[in-house]
Amino acid sequence: MSESHDLSVYIGRFQPFHNGHLELLREGLACASRCVVVLGSSYQARTPRNPFTWEERAAMIRQALDPDERQRVVFLPIRDYYNEVRWVRAVRAGVAAAAGDGATVALIGHFKDATSEYLRNFPGWTLVPQERRSPVDAAHVRDALFKGVDDIDAALNAVAPHLPAGVSGYLRAWTALPFLVPLVEEWRVLRAYQRAWSAAPYAPVLVTVDALLKCRGHVLLVRRKDAPGKGLYAVPGGFIEQRETVYQSALRELREETSVGLLELNLRHALKAVNVFDHPDRSQRGRTITHAHFFDLGDIDLPEVHAGDDAAEALWVPIDQLVGMEDRFLDDHFHMLDHFLGLTPPDPAT
Fold first, then answer.
1. Binning pLDDT at 50, 70 and 90, where does residue 131 land?
2. Are the CB atoms for 341 and 322 separated by under 8 Å?
3. Rg of the chain over all Cα atoms, to the nearest angstrom
4. Which residues are catalytic?
5. How far apart are CA 34 and CA 5, in angstroms?
6. Residue 57 and which of 13, 105, 242, 302 are 20 to 30 A apart at CA?
7. What is the pLDDT of residue 296?
């Protein structure tokens, strides 16, 4: 394929980067002088689904490319947002900044399943669909690492044929860092969830609640005591119970996790909004729909809190510190806070 566009775009999570990714990236470089690699799921906490930071993934990709190819690749880290309209706007804005005015853009992509429908949301770009290039995807590589934690050399050797040589070496060095063992613990807990549900006639849809309390420029958070999400920050919440409304469950979970001593009447007056967060990928435990309740207590003194239930810590955090904590939140809880509090600037329309 000859260079027929000013810029190509290749979007993925690349967790990790494998031979199939490399072939598609080279297709992008074949049809344009430069390629923007959009690194999805950036700025998140490490999880079994997203174990590598965007900087680590960019380093893997550089390792896989020839020197001249590296000079033609631009990396664009993008948050998930769990809001497709906002996500598309952010991608378009980032690509526009790299492309310049009047540039022609080719979008390289593979329609794997329903999760690939986002490729149709970029009118004005030339979609260049590609066939699947590898029998192994990134999930297989991650599972091999987590299963093989007791014999990393054997695990890496098993997946090496599916990885660029530079990526194999990078992963070998990465597994010596202190990230792998806690991720394996998370992975095992999540696998136990999946086994427990495997006999259900239909895939379960879980319903949860969250209670976001704002008070005097602070928000009330908990730090999780157990996996999944051990050690991460979260909005207080949990699973709805059979004989409760979502509001009743939100109050119960709030008190169980934080011991906050507020009267129900005061909380009812402080309730400002309820929003449903239902992105299919928002929780690694499975399809989980949450009803988040936003309470604004105004400028009263910060109520005393104590950790309880499955919280290791309950604490009031200044709102102006939340952006710096983005990569330490459970699932989409940072974006839940962003929805109610406007933590990140709006992305420019393009």
1. confident
2. yes
3. 22
4. 313
5. 9
6. 105
7. 98
CATH number, position 296: 3.90.79.10
3-state SS class at 41 = coil
- Give percent above pLDDT 90 in the chain: 84
What residues form DSSP beta bridges with 212? 294
Q: Considering its fold, how many domains does the chain have in total?
A: 2
CA atoms within 13 A on the CB side of 277: 27
pLDDT, tens digit (0-9, with 9 covering 90-100), for 96-109: 999 887 889 999 98
Q: Residue 350 has what pLDDT?
A: 45
β strands within the chain, DSSP E: 5-12, 32-39, 73-77, 105-109, 126-129, 206-215, 218-224, 233-234, 237-239, 271-277, 288-296, 311-318
d(CA 283, CA 280): 8
Burial class, 346, CB count within 10 angstroms (exposed 0-12 / middle 13-18 / buried 19+)? exposed
Cα three-residue angle 83-21-335, rounded to 5 degrees:
20
User: What three-state secondary structure class fits 91?
Assistant: helix
* Chain centroid, CA 151 distance in Å: 28
* CB atoms closer than 10 angstroms to residue 207: 14
Task: Note whether 9 and 152 are same-domain residues.
Answer: yes
Looking only at the bridges linking them, the beta strands covering 105-109 and 126-129 are parallel
Pairing between β-strand 218-224 and β-strand 233-234 as defined by DSSP bridges: antiparallel
Give the confidence band of 149 by pLDDT, cuts at 50, 70, 90. Answer: very high
Could you give the CA distance from residue 297 to residue 270 in angstroms, rounded to a whole number?
A: 6
- The type of residue at 47 is T
130 and 27 co-located in one domain? yes
Global pTM reads: 0.92
The model's pLDDT over 54-79, given as tens digits with 9 standing for 90+, comes to 999 999 999 999 999 999 999 999 99
